[in-house]
Structure formats: structure tokens, C-alpha cells
Amino acid sequence: MLKLINKAGHIPIHDFGFNIMLLHGFIDQTEASITDSITKYETEGPETFVVEEYSEDDIYIAIDSYMGIDDQAVNLDDIFKRYYPSIMRRSALLTIVGLLEHEVEKFCISYSKRHSINIKLNDLKGAGFERGHLFIKKVVGLNNSRAYPEIKKIIKLRNSCAHNDARLVNNENQDIQEITRLLEQHPDLLGRDNEQVLFHEGALLAFLKVFEDYIKEIETHINPPREAKKLFP
Questions:
Q1: Cα atoms in the 13 Å half-sphere on the side-chain side of 90
Q2: In contact, 201 and 126? CB cutoff 8 Å
């Protein structure tokens, strides 16, 4: 699966299949950890501490606390059922995109070597997926990818997770259009908490599917399906 081969019987140029399988397992483990954390929170619940008491008036002032966070500053349910799971998912997105960027770069390098092409990946401008796609477009010839525009949006979101606390506005407080479109496209997978993106269950698998579609486009371009012979002229 997802082995990019030029001709039948040749050694694959690059095999994406193993790492795609690993990423599916990684996403499953991430979601299982989130479920376990929420279950533990719901089962154990926050502890209640009395911080002031006026026994003569039978008045007690107490706070609820869980893992060092108290409910005077935040809503504990919101933190442990929404915010922390979102942080785990957006951290996982960094791993997913980083690994796939590296895999695409390896494919481009292998393609150059296999075909003895003068243009090398490092000869092109840009970095990461942008440069890899430029190579795939110019050298491999995949000119009309339907998946890559979606990948660009996901990478914008990844960059915001890495450098801007998953905010959907830039430093000038203007909406980042690519991220805004993702929220509009996937209201069940992504949410908005003021200016920050919240990741819901299913987002990571949906984004990985976009990358898989892109890889399949490359595979189909390199190995176009054979046309059936016509029975009649």
C-alpha cells in the first residue's frame, strides 16, 4: 500500500505505507490517552479544600482543585474535558505533519536519484511541504493536486499551533484565512474558543486522510491506471 513505483516489478521509489500505519496507531494512542484522562477526572473528581471557615456562623469557603488547578480561576470541566484534550491533539498534529514532510522529502530525493534528474530538492526555494510539492509539481509532473490546497490550510494551522498558541489570528489581530476556512469546513472537528482553535475527536484522522489522498495522487500520476482494451474500433 502506498508504494510509489514507476514500472511493474521495479523496486519502489519510496514506501509511505509503514509510516502511515504508524501514524494511524499514534492517533489511536493519543485518543485513548485523552479518553483515559477524562475518565480519570470524572471518576476521581476534584478535591474540595476549605480555605476559610466561620464556624460561629456555620459558613465555610471552599475551593475545588484537581492536579494543582483550582476552580477559582477556571472551570475545571472545561480545562480537563476540552482544553487539555485539544492541547494533546494539536501537539500530535506537529508530529504528524513533521513526519510526513520528512517522508515527502525522502521521496523527492529518491525520485531524483532513480531518474538521474539534474534538479535536486535543495535547488528549489522554500522548505518543508511547500518545497516538496514544488518538486513534485515541476519534476514529477503532478500539476493539479486536489489535496494540496487542503494540506496548505492544515500546515497553516500546524504553524499556528507551533508558534502562536493555536490562535486563528495573526500578530495584527487579523483572521488567518486558511484556518478560518478549516473551521468553516469542519465545525464538528474544530472549534473556536475566543481567538484559539480547539481540536475535537476525529480531527487528527481527518487531517491524516488528506495527506493520504495527496500521496495516492502522486502514486496515480506515476502509475496511471491502464485503460481496458476496446473490443470494437
A1: 24
A2: no
E-strand stretches of 41-180: 47-54, 59-66, 69-70
Neighbour count for residue 162 (Cβ, 10 Å): 15
As a whole number, mean pLDDT of residues 134-162 equals 94
| E strands present in the chain | 3-4, 14-15, 47-54, 59-66, 69-70, 190-193, 196-199
Could you tell me where the beta strands, DSSP code E, fall in 67-177? 69-70
31-83: per-residue pLDDT in tens?
999 999 999 988 887 766 554 555 555 555 566 676 766 767 778 888 889 99
The CA–CA distances, whole Å, from 85 to 13, 27, 94, 160, 202 equal: 38, 13, 15, 17, 12
Q: What are phi and psi of 181, to 5 degrees?
A: -65, -40
- Name the DSSP class of 81: I
> Given this model, what pLDDT does residue 130 score?
92
- pTM comes to 0.84
